[in-house]
Design a protein that fits this description.
Strand content of chain A: 5-15%
Number of domains of chain B: 1
Largest sheet of chain B: 5 strands, mixed
Number of helices of chain A: 24
Largest interface: A-B, 37 and 38 residues
Radius of gyration of chain A: 27 Å
CATH class of chain B: Alpha Beta
Structural class of chain A: alpha/beta
Distance between the termini of chain A: 70 Å
Order of helices and strands of chain B: HEHHEEEHEH
Structural class of chain B: alpha+beta
CATH topology of chain B: Glutaredoxin
CATH architecture of chain B: 3-Layer(aba) Sandwich
CATH topology of the largest domain in chain A: Rossmann fold
CATH architecture of the largest domain in chain A: 3-Layer(aba) Sandwich
Oligomer: heterodimer
Strand content of chain B: 15-25%
Number of helices of chain B: 5
Number of domains of chain A: 5
Radius of gyration of chain B: 17 Å
Number of strands of chain A: 17
CATH superfamily of the largest domain in chain A: NADH-ubiquinone oxidoreductase 51kDa subunit
Number of strands of chain B: 5
Largest sheet of chain A: 5 strands, mixed
Strand order of the largest sheet of chain B: 2-1-3-4-5
Helix content of chain A: 25-40%
Shape of chain B: elongated
Chain lengths: ~600, ~130
């Protein structure tokens, strides 16, 4: 019996944390209670990407996009939409101030997106291999096993021009070719799923929403380079992704798509999962391989590169999750098709995790060459609370900031590097006028200092010195010479650190010093924080002509630093004030000023 | 299921493909909209809906979507069904039952010929005559 409606419930981590599971259960039991269980298929899918509006429920074939759904809404959704065919208007997505939109194609968030990596996310049930197979799943593996030679596969990747999505952008075909050409009795395939950049979650969502795409790509690589064993190195903090990978692997084994003699081709390939313990440096490939071997996760100098001498000293192809998810599509549609998407420098698409002071935070996939303005304003809906755009941070703790005048730069690997930032894994953190650039830089630097493995001194000592200098600046104790010293230390770290973590750790400082020198000077020379974030540099004052003596601030002050009679001007005791800002937020008359 | 051969995988893919394509709305150019207001349901719209789905399956039609809507206002001829098909004027059929549903699929959707006895709204009388003949 065919189904007349399909209810897709988002089962990504973001939506699950806001009760998507309970919504799913409620929908199942409501469909039963209202006698339509046989006519409706309810599917828990991967992430839809529009996390800002989650939990999301999509009902087909009407293509109704319901947002911020609660378990209590299930009854109404089933009774109205399924039984009576009437959309539940109050739950449909609407852009602020506009009429409700019923269809996904009308939602600006999706209009400029182009989905290759996330092709199945939010459409199939990731825990059911049949749904992946129905969407051209394992067709690419068939082609590689029975129709293509290893050289054909590498030639196809070369034509495609796929570059590593983990951040560095190294051509994938070259990695594979090195490993293929290396002579060895044993070779390995490794997936780097140790996603660690603050704010980045594209790899997690891909594994949660479409785990088979990565498994299939690994088998393709195994056949191409001559490896029979694969490892997925994933951080233990991703329980849902791990669970779905395990289910997917079990199903693939049952069907004979993993294991001995795959589809009768004589090719054996199997995969194991290795859990990371949460060290950021393990996202660096040599440290990651050491961690799989059971050693302490510390990088070793390259060359030799893992492609030639990797896991247990054997040739190893190691790619990032997003890179893997591109592979089956390239094999099916051809490298030529893929190379026509994007820019001359970077082909294909890139998934970005859009977070920070943005209206529609979420996961977006756009062709390379899309401008930042399109991503932030058209897809992201602009800055939250109508504040002014200040900068966007890309490339995580290794990247830099991009300012307003560069918003129209088409994004690809080359253009971001030219702007002093980098693609990185695709985290995009938007800042508005209320963010202090020195404070944000301090956050990133402290992150890399915490995560430094301590093996090489430029990173261990250089990072700590930079952090101390930044701390001095935010406390108003720095001098102009300190800025020059930061540049000097930063440049030295770039040259002398052992791995990318140390080499790129100074990037946030160097980039912000370049673009926001004025703001640093305000801290250093004027001892002032323009955004009002650095506590040592600000003080709260009550404006006598605006204060009406309502006592609201005095009652909220946690340290009783505000005094004054009713209907009389209040005063803040600067010695007692802890600068928490509660009075500023409480005052309805704009009588509190930050200096 | 035991380990598969290449043929078995391809067969499985083909069988699952049509199932999942029903979920995909892209590329569907014909729309069958069934009035599922209280009046429609009371007059048997659910049976009609099932009949449409069965007929689509039987004829392997993948370009047709079946959706529901509320009452279309023609409560005296329920169940009502609107059919939007390329190259044909939009038509609302009334007094539809399983047999008429079959006729709508086989004549209107597949052959571009209206089921004249059941047309209740939209095209003017002369079109019904021409199209119906």
């Amino acid at each position: 019996m065919a189904f007349r409606n399909y209810i897709l419930v988002c089962g990504g981590t973001a939506c699950e944390s806001s009760k998507a599971n309970a919504i799913y259960e409620a929908l199942v039991s409501e469909c039963k209670a209202q006698g339509v269980a046989d006519e409706v298929q309810i599917v828990k899918t991967g992430c839809f990407g529009f996390c800002e509006q989650g939990p999301i429920v999509k009902i087909l074939p009407e293509d109704s996009f319901y947002v911020q759904v609660k378990p209590e809404d299930a009854k109404e959704l089933v009774a109205e939409h399924i039984v009576k065919g009437r959309e539940v208007k109050r739950l449909l997505y609407a852009k602020e101030g506009s009429r409700k939109h019923a269809k996904v194609e009308d939602i600006e968030f999706y209009q400029k997106q182009f989905r290759i990596v996330l092709r199945n996310c939010g459409f199939i049930d990731p825990e059911n291999i049949n749904e992946y197979i129905a969407r051209e799943g394992y067709v690419a593996l068939e082609k590689v096993l029975f129709e293509m030679t290893a050289d054909d596969v590498i030639a196809e990747l070369r034509t495609a021009g796929l570059r590593g999505r983990g951040g560095a952008g190294f051509p994938t075909w070259m990695k594979w070719n090195f490993t293929k050409q290396a002579e060895s009795d044993q070779k390995y395939i490794v997936v780097n799923a140790d996603e660690g950049d603050p704010g980045a979650y594209m790899d997690r969502s891909t594994l949660e929403g479409d785990p088979h795409s990565v498994l299939e790509a690994m088998a393709i690589a195994g056949k191409t380079v001559g490896a029979n064993q694969g490892y997925i190195y994933i951080r233990a903090e991703y329980p849902l992704a791990i669970k779905r990978l395990e289910i997917a692997m079990a199903q693939a084994r049952e069907y004979g798509l993993l294991g001995k003699d795959i589809l009768g081709s004589g090719f054996d390939f199997d995969i194991e999962i290795r859990l990371g313990a949460g060290a950021f440096v393990c996202g660096e490939e040599t440290a990651l391989l050491a961690s799989i071997e059971g050693k302490r996760g510390m990088p070793v100098p390259r060359p030799p590169f893992p492609a030639v001498k990797g896991l247990w000293g054997k040739p190893t192809v190691i790619n990032n999750v997003e890179t893997w998810a591109n592979i089956p599509v390239i094999i099916i549609k051809g490298g030529d098709w893929f190379s026509r998407i994007g820019t001359a420098d970077s082909h294909g698409t890139k998934v970005f995790a859009l977070t920070g002071k943005i209206r529609n935070s979420g996961l977006v996939e756009v062709p390379m060459g899309t401008t930042l303005r399109e991503i932030i304003y058209d897809i992201g809906g602009g800055i939250a609370n109508d504040r002014e755009f200040k900068a966007v941070q890309t490339g995580g703790p290794s990247g830099g900031v991009i300012t307003k005048e560069f918003l129209d730069t088409p994004i690809d690997f080359g253009s971001l590097t030219k702007l002093g930032s980098m693609m990185g894994s695709g985290g995009m953190i938007v800042m508005d006028e209320d963010d202090c650039i020195v404070d944000v830089t301090k956050f990133y630097l402290n992150f890399t200092v915490d995560e430094s493995c301590g093996k090489c001194s430029p990173c261990r000592i250089g990072g700590r010195s930079l952090a101390n200098l930044l701390d001095k600046i935010t406390k108003g104790k720095a001098e102009l010479a300190d800025l020059d010293q930061m540049v000097e230390i930063g440049e030295a770290m770039k040259k002398a650190s052992l791995c990318a973590l140390g080499q790129t750790a100074p990037n946030p400082i160097l980039s912000t010093l370049h673009h926001f020198r004025d703001e640093y000077l305000a801290h250093v020379v004027d001892k002032r924080c323009p955004a009002g974030k650095c506590k040592s540099l600000i003080s709260y004052h009550i404006l006598p002509d605006k204060c009406i003596g309502c006592t609201a601030c005095a009652r909220k002050c946690p340290v009783a630093a505000i005094s004054g009679e009713r209907r009389e001007v209040h005063v803040i005791d600067q010695a007692a004030c802890i600068k928490c800002g509660v009075c500023y937020e409480t005052c309805k008359f704009g009588a509190i000023e930050v200096r | 299921m035991a380990k598969m051969t290449l043929e078995e995988l391809r067969k499985l893919r083909d069988s699952k493909k049509s199932e999942i394509q029903k979920r995909d709305i892209a590329g569907k150019d014909t729309q069958i909209i069934i009035g599922m207001g209280t009046c429609g349901i009371a007059a048997g719209a659910k049976v009609v809906l099932d009949a449409f789905l069965q007929e689509l399956d039987a004829h392997n039609l993948e370009h047709v979507s079946v959706t529901q809507t509320g009452c279309m206002g023609l409560c005296y001829v329920e169940p009502t069904v609107e059919v939007l098909s390329p190259g044909m004027p939009p038509v609302i059929y009334g007094k539809v039952d399983a047999a008429v549903a079959k006729a709508i699929i086989e004549d209107h959707v597949m052959r571009g010929k209206m089921v004249s006895d059941h047309v209740f709204d939209r095209p003017s009388a002369d079109i019904i005559k021409d199209g119906g003949k």
